[in-house]
Amino acid sequence: MAEAKLNRINLSEKDYEGAASTMCRGCGHDAISASVMRAYFESNIDPRKVIKMSGIGCSSKTPAYFLSQSFGFNAVHGRMSAVATGANMANHTLMPMGVSGDGDTAAIGLGNFCHMMRRNVNITYIVENNGVYGLTKGQFSATADVGSVMKGGKVNDIPAIDLAELAVTLGATYVARSFSGDRKQLTPLVQGALAHSGSAILDVISPCVTFNNHEGSTKSLKYAKGHLDPIHEVDFIPPYENIEADYNEGTDHEVELHDGSRIILHKLSKDYDPTNKAQAVTAIHAAVAEGKFLTGLIYYNPNRKEFAEELNLCDTPLAELTQADLQPSAEDLDQINASFTK
Amino acid sequence: MDTPAINDLNICVATENGSGSASSNNILFKAIFKMGVPCSSKNMFPSNIQGLPTWYEIRASAEGYLSRKDVIDVMVMFNDATAAKDIHRVRDGGLILYDDSTPLPANLRRDGVQYVGLPANKLVTKLVPASPLRAKQRNMVYVGALAYLFGIDMEVIKAVLEDTFGKKPAVIESNLLCIDAGYQYLKEKGVTQNIARLQEIPNGNKGKIITEGNTVAALGAIYGGVSVICWYPITPSSSIAESLEYYLPRLRKPKDGKKTYAIVQAEDEIASVGMIVGAGWTGARAMTSTSGPGVSLMNESIGLAYYAEIPCVFFIVQRGGPSTGLPTRTQQADISLMYGASHGDTRHILLIPHDMNSCFDFARRSFDVADRFQTPVFVAMDLDLGMNLWSSEPLKLEKEPYDLGKRLSAEQLEEWAKAGKKFRRYFDQEGDGIPYRTVPGNQHRMASYFTRGSGHDADAKYSEDENDYKYILDRLRKKFETARKFVPKPIIERERGVKTGIVCYGSSYEPVREARDRLKARGLKTNQMLIRALPLTGEVRDFLAEHDTIYLVEQNRDAQMAAIIKDEQPEVGAKIMSVLVYNGLPVTAGEVVKQIFDAAQSAQPKTATA
């Protein structure tokens, strides 16, 4: 029997697995889970340092299907961003992985999602975006495109919320879009997000094979595959590797991440600088106008502090502080009493 | 003529908000306190920033009663908009101090009271150069006038001004000028009154402090080890978070040169509760502060914390409801909302403070209770406690180690592993309904589990199985029963043979204390029980069982505590007569006495002692 391949912290891919999935057969979400497991394995991250956060919906169930050694929290509908923000403050040494859907994020949880990005909370936040409410059997979500047709024939005529555009605008510092079926692109993008400190948002088109995979849907497997508009090819280079060979001067763009790892973006058809916010928004608009999904690393801002750093929290996690750290003295209270006599 | 009462005086100051009267009233109150006279103040303010009516009542009580009094001896009538009503709130034989810079309209005259004119506007115009400050200084003039009329030494006033504006000598001087002008004006006119005199009581308030419940609750939270605070501004709770912002940097030593706490003003209450649930799950001592509307919004995640068993603390400063209601008035109408917050079968622990020291103490201990029971804990305050100034014994710190409850470290888990014991997150290992818990960051191989608000079994696995589901619900109920023996017991004052009991909670304590003395003076002896927590403890049950008649004083319309008692102890239901005060104003002893006599008369017409 061949020995399982181990990563640099001596874990096998099996160590990154979770419970058996209960998604429908062929669901895009399972493909994303596979990419997520792969990314953690490749990035040599100890699952015990990860907390898996989610809300409610099909996508929010998926954290149970990977990284079984991590603590997980399946919160209430739409509140994952707030719960993750709290968890991050309580222990900023842990790495939050948020998994959510388009209903959880773009509708009921939109407010909390926006404010999490405004704060630049350190999280890898994946939206498994299928334009439909799966768990309640097929209602339109807020990311359904105008003209998209519901299974029963109803046509959506309200404009979609573009989560990537929202993320770029509201302060997220790593914004990517990808497709569940494009593991080659998705895995390095997730790895980049894991290496980034700050809000990393990945809007991943993830077709719902049961309720939104028919003719007329703009988030079906067939439609998505036919309308992908990759900006670049993505390579993730971990900090300990010194690969120069793949980098083509003039056509490639290199992004260096906080932990020293790098993302190399290989130019496809057009010049693209992911640190240019205005260009990012324009590119998203242009793709939407053509009915396409712009994929790749859309925006990156290395210059903003993440939230825990902004709060100037002590190195010891707040959750591990002791009474000696937390309780002022009786003498301090005497002084307060004295100040109240005036 | 009557002789003036000594140190017994109830002054009501009627002004507009935003007119500077907060400062002048504060100085007046603190001057009386500094004289050593027992005194209290109640601020009836509008939900507005400038231009709406506000009343500030200051009571000096030789007997040491600190509740609001419904008989007003002196009205400072400085608000034209409410004057027509204000003149009738003064008792016969009382005094009305008014600004006679312009003549008093005939409709503001009434018989039976002494009118004292004070040209505050004219005096201030003369003394203070035209500036935005001038209008505000007008209110300082009545401070001087009252000081002269009732005998507050100007030296005491000076000392209070220095305490208040220590670093701004120009402000002290300008205020003093206006106060002195009011004092001298009445002195020169030779105005006298015969209602009351304030007399210094040497060491009368020695060691006592003046503070408000919100400030004290914030201090309690700091001493209790809070490290994550998430809140959304809402009256009347905002000053809890603001006090935390003020005191935390002053009291907490930095660690690694950085902060040992995070305060976040969230985008709404739904986010605040989400954040503290996340922080509590991760093992930090986390809290939010809000009032009724905030609790309404937080309901869903409160249920999550209850069902997923996550410690977190809610400081609730109750105000007048329903809906927006009366944001700046006091009530106890969110008791049932807190007790049963969220959908499904839930029950929550409430700690109910009644004075400054219990605000401090319960705030501190709330984190221990939350950690011990792995559940949301409510510190149930109200606006009267939270935002009015109270004179009080100094705050005392009980030196107790923090109780983190059944939280397992990696080392403990390793011992378990060696002993062949399994960690089961939601299993009732010890028969008290409280399971063991681990927090993220614990890297032991047995530590991690998946937390969810959906159905789960004793091992934290997703389950829709009817037995798994019922096991958790029943265990949560058992845990609540364990809490019944753990939460603060009531304070009981009783005499042998007395079979009538008055029961109250929270800010009703002080008026009930006074009411009992008045009832006794009129021949009705009563025992008293102050409820300090939910669930109701065995002592509460016994007291109720042992009395023939029970008056239950509450500040809500629907007798919410009575409903909780009747639900748990139906046999005492028929004995309970509710005394309900829900006009938004702090309870007065007079109101309690009146309702008790009314109830006694209608219940037992032959033996009524009125």
Beta-strand fraction estimate of chain A? 15-25%
What does the overall shape of chain B look like?
globular
- Percentage of helical residues of chain A? 25-40%
The protein's oligomeric status is heterodimer
Total discrete domains of chain A: 1
Description:
Chain A is an alpha/beta fold and 342 residues long. Chain A has a single domain, classed as Thiamin diphosphate (ThDP)-binding fold, Pyr/PP domains (Rossmann fold). Chain A has twelve helices and 13 strands. The mean pLDDT of chain A is 93. Chain B is α/β, with parallel strands linked by helices. In chain B, strands 10, 11, 12, 13, 14, 15, 16 and 22 form an eight-stranded mixed sheet that branches. In chain B, α3 crosses α4. The radius of gyration of chain B is 27 Å and the shape is globular. The C terminus of chain B is likely disordered. Classes of the chains: A alpha/beta (342), B alpha/beta (610). At the A-B interface, β1, β2, α3, α5 and α11 of A face β9, α7, α9, α10 and β18 of B. β2 of chain A pairs parallel with β18 of chain B, so a sheet runs across the interface.
